[in-house]
Amino acid sequence: MSARATISRLPSLALALLLMLLLAPAAQATEQTGKIRGTITDEDGSVLEGARVRVTSESLQGLRSAESDKSGLYWLPGLPPGQYQLNVEYEGFQGYTLNNIRVLIGATLDIDVTLRTASVEESVTVVDDRPLIDTSTSTTGSVITREYLEALPTSRSYQSAVKFAPGVTGGSNPNAQGGSSRENKWLLDGANTTDPVTGTFSFNFNLDAIEEVEVITGNFRAENGGSLGAIINVRTKSGSNKLEGGVKGFYSNGNWSPKRDATFVPDGRQIEGSEFDRDSESFDLNAFVGGPILRDKLWFFNSVRYIRNTSTALGARSPRVFDGFNIFSKLTANPAQGHHLIFSVMTGPARISNRRQSFSVDPEAQAHQYQNSLVASGEWQWFINNNLSAKFHYSHLQTDIDVTPQPCTWRDDDRFKTCLPGQEEGYIDFVTPGRIGVGGARSTGNSHYFSLNDRWRDSLRATLTAYVPRALGVHEIKGGVEVSFVRSTNTFGYTGNLYYVDRLEEADDPTSTVNYYWRETQGQLHQTNRGTTVFAYLQDSWEPTPGLTIDFGLKYDHAVMRNDEGEKIVNFDAVSPVAGVAWDPTGQGQAKIYAGGGVVIDESRLAISSFIDKNGLGRKLYLGPYFDGRDSNNSYDQWSYDRGQSNYESLPDLTVPRIYTVAAGFDMQLGGRTSVGVIGTAKFFRNLWEDDEVNYIWNGEGTNSVGVINGQQDYFFRLRTPDAARRNWLGITFKIERQMFKNLLLDINYTMSMTRGLTSTQITAAMDNPTQTPHEYGWLYSDRPHVLKASAAYKLPFGLTLGGTLNVTSGSRFDRKYYADKGSGYQNYVAERGTFDSVNPWWALNLKLRYNLRLPRGKLFFSAELNNVTNNRQATGINTGALNAGGEYFASGRQSPMTLELGGGYEW
What we know:
Helix content is 5%, strand content 53%. It is globular.
């Protein structure tokens, strides 16, 4: 059924169009709420006009109401995700109450109500037994609820939970259905928090502040723009009229984990280091509280998280120490009927000491990182009438990443950089040059560089939604505009404007350290990049007949990204269509057949325009005493100068990167809150960001250059979006899902896919050597032909819950490359990419046990999370250096060992 309400069609349309024009400089975004709609009838099937429909929820703060129109239709949009109660009243009829309704982000619930004539019983109360399947949409993805996050082992990371969505693989910045790790869009309560430079996530977040996480992977609607990968939409908790809170703590220790010893080959070479010189310890402390400030008017929610993680790897003398906070505060208000306000602030300051985890780095040469993400947003929701609503949203994102020499300390701990006489605690030395050790020598003196980077994104958004019944069916028309301004500033330099490179004259003799060379620089490099994006859309969700929904829409994308000289490197306008259809063949919400497709535009990132930055550091090169008496035409007191100008340019009138996507599927409810489904998806990524080298002339084998075009012996690169820069993802997913019912939660999905193309990310080494181009198109390293994911949780007696996840994944592909004189390295293919071999499949089983002890006021809980229960240590990568040079297979990385985390806390 459809969302319904009570105002005549023509005034609604007129007001909608007028507001869209007035709001024009201000919305895009994925929907942050859900909605309930349906039809009110009597026992004879006659529609009832004027029935009052109300919903209440702790998530809603108060109640929301609507009246059925002359067709018996009602519509309740803008409902925050959570558990709801629905009440229907009509004079002369029994009241109707439906409990335990779960509203999900972006979902539409069709709830038709039949009222009975009044009798002795004044009302009828039922438990929600409605269908599970949202038959109104063809969009694909997953919604990860708070219940899921609490019951299952997720390492207290929403990024880890995201990876259990079908078609999603990889790490914290995942690959979603062929998209690269830099092509996702990350949202927090509708605020675009994607890193404006890299396109990756910009912060961690406290799970106690999360209500739901929505992962949209395909069949995007017009409002879902700007992402070639997935849209990860985090919806936070809000306060309610009930005061609630909690304190929690979690602890893990790497010494509890099994460890591997060093691995050697028969000739005595060590090919994998020992893990016995590595350790880690982690503390994770959390607190949250939420409730009313003015009952039914103003509410608050606050959370704070502190993490301290200490780890040592590769025999490093200095432990890596992460000290970080995540602080979140949210206010929600209903100042007047039909108006809802939301204000929130999130900040996550953190410090990372001793970043350089290497045996060859002395404490005084260590580096330090300070980072922080600030997200501030405000939203006004205006429910103009039963058929029309508007949203206005502003958000500000600021990310700071500062890498400097390690601050000194007066503590008596030789693992940390010690202050010199006259230096205060925490002094950062930007004056003393660093000494970099290569060829077995140690890095000493000071960290050799610093980088101070700040990134901003400011966004204004406005959306308008109109519900129009009785216009050849029912329409939900939505439009919006979003304008975003992004900026990045970076200061880079070398400590003392100078750095030395040392090496050993005699292998394995640390006393033979000698200066190899050193460089002087002209000073610090200051760069600023700016950009602007505009996104607008208009979409119609049309229900011509009950059970059939047709979505169609148009999107407008505009992007300008500038380099450090203010030149427009990215500059495009694009209009793209999307469409989808969903049909319920049962007419009762028990099944759905759906299909959809369209074009999605890449809105670009500042990393693209900064590729054509014009300013650089001039450097003088001095050869050190290592070259004295050696076969060299240079002496240590000669020097050369590296010019600061970049050898990069951008072609004009670039074709906009985009994907063409189509998907079709079928979902069916089995009963017992369980559903099954299958979906097939094809995504064709075209005109991706890539560069090519245009100066060198190559020999026929592609191993060396035989000349240059412009007379200069140097590389010259062009930024392009050529037709050859493409990739394809084809996949089919089978899934079974069960919401928590009779104490069992279940989610299983299996995806079979293929990923082929020229480039798996942006601006790679592809197309730099024309003789290699025939080999560069092939199986991409992100290809995972088979992926099985299973999650389950069962509520045992006496307050126990057992949860588990299983992940079985194909190993990554790899190639052996061959030596090229140009570049003096192994960089040439001799066969199609991805056809040499692949790593063996790997699997991991994770378990979580949680015990809740009910108290008169609140509850105590205790938890234990065991990851990689069987301690599988399958190789996840191959040492390409050993493979290329000698054809030897040595692991470059392995699955993390079994780990245990213990936790406990009190909630009320």
